[in-house]
Every structure is written in C-alpha cells, then in structure tokens.
Design goal:
With 271 residues, the protein is of the alpha/beta class. The chain contains nine helices and twelve strands. The strands form three sheets. A six-stranded mixed sheet has the order 6-7-8-3-9-10, with helices on both faces.
Length: 271
C-alpha cells in the first residue's frame, strides 16, 4: 500500500557544477496540503520540476505515485499531475475563451484549432470553470481576463484530467489582495471535495499558506533542509530565522501565518 504520493530520498541536484539542492529527503502523503518554503534561490521551483520528472537528480531517488522515476515511463505519471506556474507564459490562441483554455488541458495543447473535444470534456471543463469561480467569465476571451482570473482558468485547466497531485509554483505571485484570497479560497474549496488531489505549493510568502496546510519543507539559501514536517514543529520563528539568516518573527491568527522583521534591524539589511 502506497503511503506517500511523492518521496524524495537524499536528492542532490546541481546545474553547471553549482549545487542547487543537497541531501533532500521529504515525503508527502495522499490528499495532504504541503508547502515548500525558502528564500529566493533555495531550489524550490527546481524541486517541483524534479517532482514532475522534467529534471533528474544527479544523486538520490524519487518515488512518484508509487513508482521510482527512472525505472518506468514518465508520460503516464505526468498525466496524473496538474501543474500551475504563475510566471509561465502560455501563448494560447487569441480567440480562446476561459472555457477553451480549461478544455485544452485534456490535450496539453495551446490551441483547439485542430482538436474536437467531446461533449463530456467540454461539459466537465465548464463545470471546473464554475468551481473556480469563473462562471460569468467562461466565454470571455482568455487574454482579456485579469491576472487572477487567468490563474483560475489555468487552475481549471490543470484539474480537467483529475490529477492525483496538483503542483503550484507561486500561485498568487503579482496578485492584489482580493485576487490572492480568491485563489486561496478556490484551493481550500478544492481540498474539501471528495477525493481531492494532493496539493503542493511553492511560495516564500507565509500569508499564502492555506490554513489546512499539513506538511512543510523549509529550505535554506543553499538548498538544504532547515526543517520538515507539520507546521507546528517545522514552521517557527527560529526555523525561519535560520532559513533566511535574519531575525524573523512568526505569528499565527485564524490559521493564517504572518512573518515580519523588526524595523529596528532594517539597517542590518543594508550593510
């Protein structure tokens, strides 16, 4: 019986002889909400690409959905993973609506010009558009949507094939407060549905953590583990201060985390 949907075992990854990740061991259980945190350059996005088999470690092993990467074909595994990258550029056809974009997830395509989706596929994509709160924008051209609305359309696109794992790379980057909270509310609703996917989010903003986050991986600027496990033990002021090499104060209210640096120490940042 599979006890984890994703497991890293002593992962080391370098690029151009420069270490990015060193000695990473971490597991994520089915239907968990997990988060990868750390400063810029700590290897968070690299970890997601390793998890989706688009990069390969120089050392260590990765189990994905009960299979060891490198020992089985990756295409069937990737088909069970949904990925949303807020900073990625998706050059969809200009005449594609939000509904079209969601439907295109069935085919991993950027156009439906040469594809004829089934009625079931179109209906399911529209159902997901409704679920992410875009029902009134379903037939609006994708390129005319706001940044937050585009992100929700991409989320629907990632969900059409009912993935077992949903990978989110800084899903609320560049969003204003209402748009950010709408994305978080959408993910929280998704998690409460029957048979939700495992959600793994990469972020360096603690306010973006969902209240039901159960598993934290905190990385240092050198791509090493500072802490891993439940937020109660892995996410503390001391752990954050170690990860960022700064005196960070962590607070929690109504299940939401907030971190700040005392303004009295700001001058230290400028030296």
């Amino acid at each position: 019986m599979t006890t984890s949907v994703l497991a890293f075992h002593d992962i080391h990854f370098s690029r151009d002889s420069r270490p990015i990740l060193s000695g990473i061991s971490w597991q994520v259980a089915p239907r968990q909400i997990a988060a990868v945190l750390g400063p810029n350059g700590s290897g968070k996005s690299t970890l997601l690409r390793l998890a989706s088999a688009y990069l390969w470690p120089q050392q260590g092993s990765i189990q994905l959905l009960g299979q060891t990467l490198g020992e089985v074909p990756v295409a069937p595994l990737r088909a069970q993973i949904g990925i949303v990258e807020s900073t990625a550029i998706y050059p969809f056809d200009e005449d594609m609506t939000a509904h079209d974009v969601a439907t295109s997830g069935y085919f991993s395509a950027l156009t439906l010009g040469y594809i004829t989706p089934t009625r079931h596929q179109r209906d399911h994509a529209r159902h997901l558009i409704d679920q992410v709160g875009l029902s009134t924008h379903a037939d609006q051209l994708y390129h005319t949507l706001s940044t937050g609305e585009r992100l929700r359309a991409l989320l629907a696109r990632a969900l059409v094939r009912k993935p077992k794992i949903l990978l989110l790379d800084e899903p609320t980057a560049a969003l204003d407060l209402p748009a950010r909270e709408t994305i978080l509310a959408t993910l929280a609703r998704l998690h409460k549905q029957p048979h939700p996917p495992t959600i793994i989010t990469v972020t360096h903003h603690l306010e973006e953590l969902l209240p039901d986050t159960q598993n934290i991986l905190l990385l240092s600027s050198h791509g090493q583990i500072v802490s891993a496990g439940p937020p109660e033990s892995a996410l503390t002021s001391a752990m954050l201060s170690t990860a960022y090499n700064l005196p960070i104060h962590l607070t929690r209210h109504n299940g939401r985390y907030h971190a700040h640096i005392d303004p009295a120490t700001w001058n230290d940042l400028l030296q």
